[in-house]
Amino acid sequence: MTWTVLGAPLNSAGTPDGETRMPAALRAAGLVGALSALDEGDIQGRIDDTRRDPETGIIGFADLRRASAELRERLDVLLADGRRPLVLGGDCSPLLGIFAALQRYRRRPGLWFVDGHLDAYDGATSPTGEAADMELRILLGDGPKGLVDLGDWVPLIEAADVLALGHRHPDDSDSVDEVDLIDARVERLDARALRDLGPSAVAERALALADRTDAVWLHLDLDVLDEEALPAVSYRQPGGLDWDELERLLRPLTSHPRLVGASIADLNPDRDASGRHAAQVVRLLADTLA
């Protein structure tokens, strides 16, 4: 099935730099042609307010709601038409609009959450106030009205239908408290566990999730890569995957017949002046998604 690219250049810090330039950078690096994809352009919504909302603790809360609703409506059209969307962030916050749209078409959607962080903070515990610190927690129904209820029912996804892959082992990261904040029903395999288990065993766990849901979405935050492999992300960490490990992880997921769409986040073009890292991301996506 042909991929349809849709940009959602949201930066939860409320500034127009960094990840907001990611869709343009990947297009300039040849992504659409490499995938032989259709291109639906970008949503218009942006997070322009840098203030932390006093009630929710989330930066640009009203902007995020509007952009998420717009993304939901744009994806409604694509999914109704039988398209397979590839959503280009921005950061991870577009997952809210994605699952608000997806649950309208699938009663039990699943999520492969490939990310260097668990994004399990809330408005009180997040050190930044960025929605990209907390979107997984909001998806699971723990968050402010206006976000948890973007779809037709709450939660946007059930915790048992999420598999988190590639976050840092507590010994490899300073943000170990996220492990204690995530819903215990979420199945987790951190980066160290991925290596210990090996590609075949990891694929078996991931495909088991697809088999018990009626569709699955793949979300890739590029900070799952080690800071030496990809320094062009906003929150770099040691202990992550290398490019070959990430490709081996993605291959069985992207070939599964229940994969209904994918999203990618957190390339920061401000840290990639030459475009070298954007080109490497395009090669990864061409080798796995195509």
Secondary structure blueprint with pairings:
Blueprint: E1 3-8, H1 22-28, H2 31-34, E2 38-42, H3 61-80, E3 84-89, H4 95-102, E4 109-114, H5 135-139, E5 162-165, H6 177-181, E6 187-189, H7 191-197, H8 199-212, E7 215-221, H9 243-254, E8 259-265, H10 276-289
Parallel strand pairs: 1-2, 1-3, 3-8, 4-5, 4-7, 5-6, 7-8
Helix pairs in contact: 3-4, 8-9, 9-10
Tags for this entry?
single chain; 290 residues; alpha/beta
Provide a descriptive summary of the structure in words.
There is one protein chain. The chain has helices at about 20-30, 30-35, 60-80, 95-100, 135-140, 175-180, 190-195, 200-210, 245-255, 275-290, and strands spanning about 5-10, 40, 85-90, 110-115, 160-165, 185-190, 215-220, 260-265. The longest helix is centred in the N-terminal third of the chain and has 20 residues, at about 60-80. Helix 3 crosses helix 4 (about 95-100), helix 8 (about 200-210) runs parallel beside helix 9 and helix 9 runs parallel beside helix 10 (about 275-290). It has ten helices and eight strands. The chain has about 290 residues and is α/β, with parallel strands linked by helices. The model has no long low-confidence stretch (mean pLDDT about 95).
Concise structural overview:
With 290 residues, the chain is an alpha/beta fold. The protein has helices at residues 22-28, 31-34, 61-80, 95-102, 135-139, 177-181, 191-197, 199-212, 243-254, 276-289, and strands at 3-8, 38-42, 84-89, 109-114, 162-165, 187-189, 215-221, 259-265.
- State the distance separating the first and last CA atoms: 9 Å
* Rg from alpha-carbon coordinates: 17 Å
For the sheet with most strands, the description reads: 8 strands, parallel
Q: Report the β-strand fraction as a percent range.
A: 15-25%
Please write the string of helix (H) and strand (E) elements. Answer: EHHEHEHEHEHEHHEHEH
* Low-confidence blocks of residues: none
Number of helices: 10
Query: What overall form do the CA principal axes indicate?
Result: globular
Mean pLDDT: 95
Q: What topology, given as strand order, has the largest sheet?
A: 2-1-3-8-7-4-5-6
Tally of DSSP β-strands:
8
Q: Helix fraction?
A: 25-40%
Structural class label: alpha/beta
